[in-house]
Specification:
Helices cover 47% and strands 17% of the residues. The protein is of the alpha+beta class. It has two domains: 173 residues, Regulatory protein AraC (Jelly Rolls, Sandwich), CATH 2.60.120; 117 residues, Orthogonal Bundle (Arc Repressor Mutant, subunit A), CATH 1.10.10.60. The strands form two sheets. Strands 2, 4, 5, 6, 7 and 8 form a six-stranded antiparallel beta sheet that branches. Strands 1-3 form a two-stranded parallel sheet. A hairpin with a 2-residue loop joins strand 4 and strand 5. Helix 5 packs antiparallel against helix 6 and helix 10 crosses helix 13. 29% of the residues are buried. The model has no long low-confidence stretch (mean pLDDT 89). InterPro entries: Homeodomain-like_sf (IPR009057), HTH-like (IPR037923), HTH_AraC (IPR018060). GO terms for molecular function: DNA-binding transcription factor activity; sequence-specific DNA binding.
Length: 300
């Protein structure tokens, strides 16, 4: 199945291609727009970017082969790994949508928040119905991001990340608990707490200690297979995938915010050889560490 890129989205919707996307790959990107579509169906595919839509109107959301009607107003958190589309049924459609990629997020959303949100966890229902009060609240938040994006304020993207996190957290609140407060839920909380204790990395003299699922399972006094099964059911990702995602996020942060060379970062994140780190980073980001640093610093 095809995975739509950000560049393809702008081509498909006949919008001007943002300059940074036209000239570079893996650059940070965020955009927010008001919805104007009428009686149109978006392609059913995966995406290499995140999308949040606040829909006012009637339509049908299709994700993972499951249809969910939208009646009146709803907010949809589209997980990139889940094939989805939206069919606008009513003639009048309004609201907002925003697009962003992993590079834009960096470490702004904690892992335990990610596992509670349908934006990152495909096991959670993506569509949340809105009443008049929550519709107004989300409309205000999207409007705030739109206003910030068009401003010249030098820290506007930092503020946008804060508003975006409010939208994600509000969605989690409206969704209600993902699971009951049972032993599995407590295990997940303990795992993420242990994971977060390893970060941020503040010095090459203090490299990561826990690098594998087995190391985390040992610290939590459980079998590695049980930990993996619980995380997979609740987050849609394996223990190894979650650890790798967090290491990649930290690598991006270090490349952007420190002057450490690739060898120092590699050692600090648990890689014996810089070449192993370069290969690992490229597999997860489709670019090399040094090229990523250069592109991101040029964009900022």
């Amino acid at each position: 199945m095809h995975t739509e890129t950000l560049q393809e989205f702008y081509e498909r919707t006949k919008q001007p291609m943002p300059a940074e996307l036209a000239s570079q790959a893996n650059v940070s990107h965020f955009n927010v727009k008001q919805r104007t579509c009428k009686n149109r169906m978006t392609p059913y595919n995966r995406r290499d970017y995140y999308k949040i839509c606040m829909i006012v109107g009637e339509g049908m959301h299709l994700a993972g082969g499951k249809e969910t009607p939208v009646e009146g107003a709803a907010i949809i958190f589209s997980n990139p790994t889940v094939a989805s589309s939206y069919h606008a049924v009513s003639e009048t459609q309004s609201g907002y949508y925003c697009l962003f990629n992993d590079t834009f997020l960096l470490n702004s959303i904690r892992q335990e928040i990610r596992y509670r949100s349908p934006l990152f966890n495909p096991a959670i229902q993506a569509v949340i119905a809105l009443n008049a009060e929550t519709r107004e609240r989300f409309g205000h938040l999207f409007g705030e991001m739109e206003s910030l994006l068009s401003s010249t304020y030098p820290y506007k993207f930092d503020m946008i990340r804060s508003v975006l996190q409010m939208i994600i957290l509000e969605g989690i609140r409206l969704q209600g608990p993902v699971v009951s407060e049972n032993s599995n839920d407590r295990l997940i909380s303990r795992f993420f707490a242990l994971l977060n204790q390893q970060f941020p990395v503040d010095s090459p003299e203090n490299p990561l200690r826990l690098l594998t699922p087995a190391a985390y399972a040992e610290q939590l006094s459980i079998h590695v297979n049980h930990l993996n099964n619980v995380l997979k059911r609740s987050t849609g990702k394996t223990t190894r995938e979650i650890i790798h995602e967090r290491i990649v996020e930290e690598a991006k942060t270090l490349l952007l915010n420190t002057d450490w060379d690739a060898a120092q970062i590699a050692y600090t994140l648990g890689f014996e050889y810089p070449s192993h780190f370069n290969k690992y980073f490229k597999q997860n980001t489709r670019t090399t560490p040094l090229l990523f640093r250069e592109q991101l610093r040029q964009a900022n």
